[in-house]
Automatic annotation (TrEMBL):
Stored NCBIfam families: dipeptidaselike, PRK07318.1
Annotated source species: Staphylococcus simiae CCM 7213 = CCUG 51256
Keyword flag Cell cycle: no
Domain Peptidase M20 dimerisation: 261-370
Name of this chain's protein: Dipeptidase PepV
Length: 469
C-alpha cells in the first residue's frame, strides 16, 4: 500500500528534485556573508526547500540562513530527519552538465542526486504524503536542513546552539538498513620537541622527509632527501634490496650530491589503514638502517618503536576491541621532518565506545617524553552509538525488511555520518545494497526505483514512529 501511495506522487517528486538539483549549492567562502554564510548556492538551496514546504502548507523556521527546518505533526516528542542540501564540487569528466539534471527512463543524473538531495526530497515527500492523508500525528517532526555538511558542519553546530534537540531521529545520508554506531574520530600530532646536539660525524644527514597530506588517508607517496658523504652506491643498492624484500615500488636518484629516495604505497581511507600501504612508514623503516645524524635517528627510531606495522594502536599501547564496534585503528596520515624543525607525525585514531581516549593519551604522553616527543591533540569526536535493540532502531529495520525482504542486520562503521549530530540518531538509507555508490564522483545518479522505494520506506517508518505510537 505504501508503494502505491508513492506512485501517485512520482511526477511531483521528480520535478521538485530536479529543481533542487539545478542549484549549484557548493560552498564558496569567497562569497560568504551574514546573508550567505557559506556562499549563495547553499543559501539558495535552503530557501528552495522552504518554498516547496510553504507551497504545501508547512511551517518553516530559518536559523541564520545556514540551517533551518520544515515542521509537521503535533505532540510532545520531536522526530528529527537530518538532511543537507549542499554538495561537493562537480569535479571533472562528467558526460552532462552536473547542475542541469538529466532524466532518463529510469534515473536522474546530477551532482547531489545521492548525496543528499535525492534522499532529502524522499524524506520530505514521506511527510507530505502523510500530511495529505490527514493522519493523526502523535509526534512533531522537524526536517532539519543543513548547508555545510560537506565541509565543517557549521550548519548543525549553529542549529543546535539554539534549537531543540529531537528526542530521536535519522539522517537519510548513508545506507540501508541502519548504521547504529560510529567510532570516535580523533586527530593528534606527535611532535619532536627536543632537538639534540649532533654527534661528530654522522655518515648520513636527513635533510627533509615528507609523506601524506591528510590525516584520514594512508599516504601513498614518501620522499626523503639525504646528504650522503660516502658509499653512495652501497646505500642505493641496499635501498633496491629493501624495496624488493618488502614488495614496494620506489626510486632513488642523486640530485647535486643529495640522495633522493621515494617510496610508493597504496592510499586507502584512514578508517582502515590495514588494507593500505603506508609509503612514509616504510621509507622511515629503511632510513633506520643508516647511521643518521642524532635528530633524524631519534625520529626514525620513534616511527619503528611506536608506529611502523601497527594499524591497531598496538605499539602505542592503545589496542582495544569491542564485539559491537571492532578495533581501535591508527592511521599515520602525515609525516614531515626537516633538519632544523625536527619531525612530526599526524595521526588519525578511531575508537569504539568504551575506550578511554583521554587516559590513553595521558599514558602515551609520559611514555614518549623520554623519546623527545610530545602530543598536540587536534579534533576529537566521541563515539556515537544507539543500541540496535532499541525499539526505535528496530522499527526502522522492520520497515526496511517489510519492503525489501532483505534481512541484513544494522551495523556500525569507523567513519562518521551526519547522524552523529543527533543525541539519539542513526543513519537510515538511502543507498540500497545494489545502488552504485557514485557519491562525490562524476556522473552521480539516483535510479527512480531507489528514489521511490526510499520514499516508501520513509513513509512507512515515519507512520510507525509518529502516527501509530
Ligand atoms: Zn551527505
Amino acid at each position: 500500500m505504501w508503494k502505491e501511495k508513492v506512485q501517485q506522487y512520482e511526477d511531483q517528486i521528480i520535478n521538485d528534485l530536479k529543481g533542487l538539483l539545478s542549484i549549484e549549492s557548493v560552498r564558496d567562502d569567497s562569497k560568504a556573508s551574514t546573508e550567505t554564510p557559506v556562499g549563495p548556492g547553499p543559501r539558495e538551496a535552503l530557501d528552495y526547500m522552504y518554498e516547496i514546504a510553504q507551497r504545501d502548507g508547512f511551517a518553516t523556521y530559518d536559523v541564520d540562513h545556514i540551517a533551518g527546518r520544515i515542521e509537521a505533526g503535533k505532540g510532545e516528542d520531536v522526530l528529527g530527519i537530518l538532511c543537507h542540501v549542499d554538495v561537493v564540487p562537480a569535479g571533472e569528466g562528467w558526460d552532462s552538465d552536473p547542475f542541469e539534471p538529466v532524466e532518463t527512463d529510469n534515473a536522474i543524473i546530477a551532482r547531489g542526486t545521492l548525496d543528499d538531495k535525492g534522499p532529502t526530497i524522499a524524506a520530505y515527500y514521506a511527510i507530505k504524503i502523510l500530511e495529505d492523508m490527514k493522519v493523526d500525528w502523535k509526534k512533531r517532526i522537524h526536517i532539519i536542513i543543513g548547508t555545510d555538511e560537506e565541509s565543517d558542519w557549521k550548519c548543525t553546530e549553529r542549529y543546535f546552539q539554539t534549537e531543540e534537540m529531537p528526542a530521536l531521529g535519522f539522517a537519510p545520508d548513508a545506507e540501508f538498513p541502519v548504521i547504529h554506531g560510529e567510532k570516535g574520530i580523533t586527530t593528534f600530532d606527535l611532535v619532536q620537541h627536543s632537538i639534540v646536539d649532533d654527534k661528530d660525524e654522522p655518515d648520513y644527514e636527513l635533510q627533509s622527509f615528507t609523506s601524506g597530506e591528510r590525516y584520514n588517508m594512508v599516504p601513498d607517496h614518501a620522499e626523503a632527501r639525504v646528504l650522503v658523504k660516502e658509499n653512495m652506491t652501497d646505500v642505493i643498492q641496499d635501498f633496491e634490496y629493501f624495496l624488493e624484500q618488502n614488495q614496494l615500488q620506489g626510486e632513488s636518484l642523486v640530485d647535486s650530491g643529495i640522495l633522493v629516495l621515494t617510496v610508493e604505497g597504496k592510499a586507502v581511507h584512514g578508517m582502515d589503514p590495514s588494507i593500505g600501504v603506508n609509503a612514509g612508514l616504510h621509507l622511515l623503516k629503511f632510513l633506520s638502517s643508516l647511521n643518521l645524524d642524532n635528530n633524524a635517528q631519534s625520529f626514525v627510531a620513534f616511527s619503528n618503536r611506536y608506529l611502523y606495522d601497527s594499524n591497531f594502536g598496538e605499539k602505542m599501547g592503545m589496542k582495544f576491541h569491542t564485539d559491537v564496534m571492532g578495533d581501535v585503528t591508527t592511521n599515520i596520515g602525515i609525516i614531515n621532518y626537516d633538519n632544523e624543525q625536527g619531525g612530526r607525525f599526524g595521526v588519525n585514531l578511531r575508537y569504539p565506545e568504551g575506550f578511554d581516549f583521554d587516559k590513553a593519551m595521558e599514558r602515551f604522553k609520559s611514555e614518549i617524553d623520554h623519546d623527545g616527543f610530545k602530543i598536540e591533540i587536534g579534533k576529537v569526536q566521541v563515539p556515537h552509538y544507539v543500541d540496535k535493540n532499541d525499539p526505535f532502531v528496530q522499527t526502522l529495520v522492520q520497515t526496511y525488511r517489510n519492503q525489501t525482504n532483505d534481512m541484513t542486520e544494522p551495523y556500525t562503521i569507523g567513519g562518521g555520518t551526519y547522524a552523529r549530530n543527533l543525541d539519539k540518531g542513526v543513519a537510515f538509507g538511502a543507498m540500497f545494497s545494489d545502488s552504485e555508490d557514485l557519491m562525490h564522483q562524476k556522473n552521480e545518479y539516483i535510479t527512480k526505483k531507489q528514489l521511490f522505494n526510499a520514499t516508501s520506506i520513509y513513509l512507512e517508518a515515519i507512520y510507525a514512529l509518529c502516527v501509530e505510537e
